[in-house]
Automatic annotation (TrEMBL):
GO terms for molecular function: monooxygenase activity; oxidoreductase activity, acting on paired donors, with incorporation or reduction of molecular oxygen. One of its GO terms (cellular component) is cytosol. InterPro entries: Bact_Lucif_Oxidored, Luciferase-like_dom, Luciferase-like_sf. PANTHER family: BLL6902 PROTEIN, LUCIFERASE-LIKE MONOOXYGENASE. This is Monooxygenase. It comes from the Bacteria. The keyword Oxidoreductase applies. The lineage of its organism: Bacteria, Bacillati, Actinomycetota, Actinomycetes, Kitasatosporales.
Length: 347
């Protein structure tokens, strides 16, 4: 890790979790309540950041189209955990209107917001919002410029207009999700922190071998006075043993891999073991996960480890237990220390 505690030299990183807000069946109210409960549990366990992903087209068992409404509710139920999106699909948002939502949730939460943005990939979403998917990079760049301008408290689009509430300092709280070395260099040039996905699609090599050069390109291209941050999203599901973990995640991961194969992101005909490898999965007893994560190639340069269960949809009790094991056994063995409940999670 790049952060260290001066007294001991122990690696220090922020611990996060990411939910895609999925459940089973059509009871989205329950799915949303369960996801809110994960934020409350993570807050109590000392996680530094809770993240949600935005999906306009429904995933199996739900998905979250309106992340800032969700995070406003999470802000009211938590006290210290930071609240972020990984990602908000920026080309499909009016960036000034988005800045108003971000500033409002930040104000309500006492300054706990992080915003991760990206271009998305679903052509149906672009069509539904009247945007051209072929322009997604151009739209992302332009909308990010306007979002930064609005969140800086500057006049935006017309003389005399600034968003309300007056935003806090977002200079170090904007992230970009990328899927290539070029994207990582572009994020660095824009002054955005880097978000790396749980899996690299379209490659045969292990995800960490693919993504490490992206992280290196990002670090090499960073020229701002503040330190760069790299948020590393990884599928992590601890349980009492490997068999128990597989009973909660195996079928879901296999089905998700077959869906990805149908779109060309993975090869056709994957078996369950290859599906778990393609999703760069860390599962089993906490000790097994710690051993595997110590070999992870991007983790040594990451400042944030963002754990997630997606594409699995474990039952709610199993998800809560997995969060607990991550915070009490996995992350501490890697050098993370939870802050006191009265101590805010740092930027």
């Amino acid at each position: 890790m790049t952060d260290t505690t001066p007294a001991t030299g122990t690696p220090r990183f922020r611990l996060g979790f990411l939910t895609h807000v999925q459940g089973r069946g059509d009871d989205l109210a329950r799915t949303y309540r369960n996801a809110q409960d994960l934020f409350v549990a993570a807050d109590e366990l000392g996680f530094d950041v809770g993240w949600v992903a935005q999906h306009h087209v429904p995933l199996g068992g739900g998905g979250l189209s309106s992340p800032w409404t969700f995070l406003a509710h999470a802000a009211a139920r938590t006290t210290r955990i930071r609240l972020g999106t990984a990602i908000t699909v920026l080309p499909l948002e009016d960036p000034v209107r988005l800045a108003e939502d971000v500033a409002t949730v930040d104000t309500l939460s006492g300054g706990r917001v992080e915003i991760g943005v990206g271009s998305g990939s679903d052509p149906t979403e672009y069509a539904a919002f009247g945007q051209d998917a072929a322009r997604k990079r151009e739209l992302t760049t332009e909308h990010l410029r306007l979002l930064r301008q609005a969140l800086s408290g500057d006049e935006v689009r017309t003389p005399g207009f600034r968003i309300q509430p007056t935003p806090g300092d977002f200079e170090s709280r904007i992230w970009q999700g990328v899927f290539s070395r070029e994207g990582a260099a572009h994020a660095a040039a824009a002054g955005s922190h880097l978000l790396l996905n749980r899996a690299a699609y379209g490659y045969d090599e292990p995800t960490d071998a693919v993504q490490r050069p992206w992280a290196d390109a990002f670090r090499a291209g960073w020229d701002r006075p503040r330190a760069p941050r790299i948020g590393l999203s990884r599928f992590v599901f601890p349980a009492k043993d490997r068999r128990t973990a597989l009973s909660h995640i195996g079928d879901d991961v296999h089905r998700a891999a077959l869906r990805m194969a149908a779109h060309g992101a993975f090869p056709a005909g994957l078996d369950a073991d290859e599906a778990l490898r393609r999703f760069h999965s860390f599962y089993g007893h906490p000790d097994e996960i710690v051993t595997a994560l110590r070999e992870e190639k991007v983790l040594p340069v990451a400042t944030d480890l963002i754990t997630q269960f997606n594409p699995a949809v474990p039952d709610h009790d199993a998800a809560l237990r997995a969060l607990e094991l991550i915070a009490t056994e996995v992350a501490p063995a890697l050098g993370w220390k939870p802050r006191a409940r009265t101590e805010p999670a740092g930027v």
